[in-house]
Amino acid sequence: MAKPSDMKAAKEKMSRGRPAMSAAKRDEMRRRIADAAHRLFKADGYSKVSMRRIAAEVGCTPMALYNYYDSKIDILRTLWDSVFDTLFAEIAAFGSDTDKTAYLTRISSAYVNYWLRNEDHYRLVFMAEGVTQPDVSIFLDGRKSLERFAIFAEALIDANDAPMDSDQLKRKLDLLICLLHGIAHNQLTISGYPWTAADMLIEDGVKAIIGG
Amino acid sequence: MAKPSDMKAAKEKMSRGRPAMSAAKRDEMRRRIADAAHRLFKADGYSKVSMRRIAAEVGCTPMALYNYYDSKIDILRTLWDSVFDTLFAEIAAFGSDTDKTAYLTRISSAYVNYWLRNEDHYRLVFMAEGVTQPDVSIFLDGRKSLERFAIFAEALIDANDAPMDSDQLKRKLDLLICLLHGIAHNQLTISGYPWTAADMLIEDGVKAIIGG
DNA sequence: TTAATTTATTATACGCGTATAATAAATATA
DNA sequence: TATATTTATTATACGCGTATAATAAATTAA
After folding, report:
1. Phi first, then psi: what are they for B132, rounded to 5°?
2. H, E, C per residue of chain A
3. Strand D positions with any atom < 7 Å from protein CB?
4. What is the value of pTM for the model shown?
5. What are the pLDDT digits (tens) for A35-55?
6. Would residue A128 be called left, alpha or beta, if left means φ above 0 and alpha means ψ between -120 and 50 degrees?
7. Residue A132 and residue B129: Cβ atoms within 8 Å?
8. Is the predicted pLDDT of residue B10 greater than 80, yes or no?
9. What is the CA radius of gyration of chain B?
10. With contacts defined as CB-CB under 8 Å, which chain B residues touch A196?
């Protein structure tokens, strides 16, 4: 009983014209572009790699890239995303703990040590040349980032001496993240200086923040 | 007895060729460029203003600017410098205090309140679109910046409960600066939210940092 | 098949920062 | 004065990110 139009509707093909690329094809092309960009960025740095070069590496024209990414920075943000996916998956793998302070310290340590073990990722995210400040802050202020850092917010609430309202929490969270990045940044970029071990700094810092 | 060559040496004019512009002339031209850039940056933002437009405002060709500044970002850094000159002159005007914690709190408050009173300066320094991260960190890591923030370092040493070694000091200083910028940033950019008064946040933060 | 329509790709062009080369201006020397 | 030399300015050109327009590819409807 099905009319041809129904059959087409079943195939979700109502309109004529060239059909849109399958999701799989799109994703594959996006990954090919991201992989090429990652290789080039790692070798030469973000600012030195042009869209023309990425296109050449992929084997298309520069403007074809814009079918898959909005802009050059959008490609970099995709790489950032996958880095954070890996990092926070690692952190989420820890079960929570009866000693709440120890738990906060442990995930803080995991966070910093991920950056220390993956210096190229740290540089890709936090030290990419040619990235404008708003590019970074849009990323770090974005909803996804907030959700990711929520694990730190919850651990802070549990570990803190006294109950906190939301802006006390925010202040402490910001302080903590600043501290963790500062530790990683100093270790990675001022490597000639004999820094106190990251884990000791983290222990001190966490104590100061939850105690104050 | 002076030979003509000696007379010329006295005038510091030994070589022939077009003489270099006088320091006064150079400085005047640098200021004309900086003023024009400041006007345009304030109106349209750093990234939207081109060297071609600055040149048109000044009344020269784009490349003539490069006799006075190394690059576009060099012009912006000059503006940053003058902003920090004003700000730290204000802070230095406070005499030190018998209550060391009160002094640290007061100069921290002066620092934050300068940014709150001069939002356009804050945006020029910390929120200029099109400024790359290395541009900023080179500036903030520079010797001149360190010297400027030394007043906070000294106040931290005086106010801190216990003696500190240099990396404890550095950590606390970084924490303090992060906090002060965070307060200013939040007040200025999330103005819809009823933030606790900056001075209260500063008081709490300073206590936590020197106590921890 | 042919025309219509939608998607994907390519071609072209713009303004950007600025490197490089050519030119103009200003001086000392011959 | 004419020439050499140094400085200041301008002209030209390059590769950049990407907006826009033209084209190619893939499909349905006539």
Report:
1. -80, 155
2. CCCHHHHHHHCCCCCCCCCCCCHHHHHHHHHHHHHHHHHHHHHHCCCCCCHHHHHHHHCCCHHHHHHCCCCHHHHHHHHHHHHHHHHHHHHHCCCCCCCHHHHHHHHHHHHHHHHHHCHHHHHHHHCCCCCEHHHHHHHHHCHHHHHHHHHHHHHHHHHCCCCCCHHHHHHHHHHHHHHHHHHHHHHHHCCCCCCCCHHHHHHHHHHHHHHC
3. 4-12, 15-21, 24-29
4. 0.87
5. 999 999 999 999 999 999 999
6. beta
7. yes
8. no
9. 22
10. 167
Plot region of B59 (φ>0 → left; ψ -120 to 50 → alpha; else → beta): left
Report CA Rg, chain A: 22
Minimum mean pLDDT range among A15-19, A44-48, B22-26, B29-33: A15-19
Nucleotides of C under 7 A from a protein CB: 4-12, 15-21, 24-29
Nucleotide with smallest C1' distance to residue A20 CA:
C7
Strand C contacted by A67 CB (< 7 A): yes
Residues contacting residue A75 through CB under 8 Å, at least 6 positions apart: A33, A34, A37, A54, A65, A69
CA–CA separation, B126 and B75 (whole Å):
15
- List CB contacts (< 8 A) between B134 and chain A: 127, 129
- The DSSP letter of residue B65 is G
Q: Among candidates B94, B105, B191, which has minimal Cα distance to B156?
A: B105
Distance CA B164, CA B157 (A): 7
Distance from CA of A137 to the nearest CA of B (A): 10
CA distance A149 to A153: 7
Asked if A134 lies within 8 A of B126 by C-beta distance, the reply is no
